[in-house]
Amino acid sequence: MKVTKAVIPAAGFGTRMLPITKAQPKEMVPVFDKPVIQYVVEEAYEAGIDDILIITGRHKRAIEDHFDRFPELEDSIKNSEKEKELEKLYEILENVTIHYVRQKIPRGLGDAIYHAKKHVDDEPFVVLLGDVITFPNCTKELLSLLLGNECIISVQEVPREMVSRYGIVEIDENGRIKDMMEKPSIEEAPSNFAILGRYLLQPEIFDFIEKTPAGKGEEIQITDSIKLMIANGKEVRAHTFTGKVYDIGNKISWIKATIEFALRSEMGNIIKEKMKKLLC
Ligand code: G1P
């Protein structure tokens, strides 16, 4: 079955990015010349998704404004060089329907994803965390692996001392996930394979989210719901992604991403020269 729907949870406060995120959503933080969430939406679009549901919250209105037309602005830059800066965004607006639903109380990622229940109905769907960028396109790779009605979670090895920042999975010799744990200590962690923020889920997940008690941080964790699903015999496979993952929820990774994307851009050579001078 072709997967056409994506869900982008974007309701978190972004406390690790304060003060930048005091009055602007963390998903609108720029990485070089685009807000993070535009990279995420482009990733979904380029993977063949044409229907996106963004889970937002009270302080997230800028996201809706970003994915909307702005006739006065369009008129003011008409026939100028600046028009091309909006080309990709406008191509997406033409081809993808973007919907929004608000998570009224922040009760965790599982609860945020549960807000997509009515929207995705009985179809498989992908979840892309709104503050994670992948390169090359992890969602495209993930979708190409779907064989039947299983769930697939993208994972990547992380240094052992970082396991407590992630959902950690235990994978068997056939690539199936046997167990998973949200942000375990080094001692508890079943491995160092971390959930990176891309999930291919089946609609049964909603039944398991309903049965998931509050976990880490007193929040409903999607990791716990998937774990429950595995315990009930559902097949969940791991997709080991070998590309780059940028978690824009923390400052070091954000700066690194900004520098890398700037160097990869048309301005790359100029920026490299400026940086050389800065460093010597
Ligand atoms: C979330 C998930 C976690 C995953 C991580 C990837 O945590 O709960 O399992 O490993 O995203 O970035 P968060 O970073 O939102 O606390």
Short overview:
It contains eleven helices and 13 strands. The protein is an alpha/beta fold. It has a single domain, classed as Alpha-Beta Complex (Spore Coat Polysaccharide Biosynthesis Protein SpsA, Chain A).
- What's the level 1 CATH class? Alpha Beta
Helix tally? 11
Total domain count = 1
CATH topology: Spore Coat Polysaccharide Biosynthesis Protein SpsA, Chain A
Major sheet: 9 strands, mixed
Strand content: 15-25%
Series of H and E elements: EEEHEHHHEHHEEHEEEEHHEEHH
Can you walk me through this structure?
The chain is of the alpha/beta class and 280 residues long. The protein has one domain (5-156, 195-248): Spore Coat Polysaccharide Biosynthesis Protein SpsA, Chain A (Alpha-Beta Complex). It is built from 11 helices and 13 strands. It has helices at residues 36-46, 61-66, 71-77, 87-95, 109-114, 117-120, 138-144, 205-210, 222-231, 251-264, 268-279; strands at 5-9, 30-31, 34-35, 51-56, 97-102, 125-128, 132-135, 151-157, 167-171, 177-182, 193-201, 236-240, 244-247. The strands form 3 sheets. Strands 1, 4, 5, 6, 8, 9, 10, 11 and 12 form a 9-stranded mixed beta sheet that branches. Helix 1 (36-46) packs across helix 4 and helix 10 packs across helix 11. The chain starts with a strand and ends with a helix. The mean pLDDT is 95. 1-O-phosphono-alpha-D-glucopyranose binds next to strand 11.
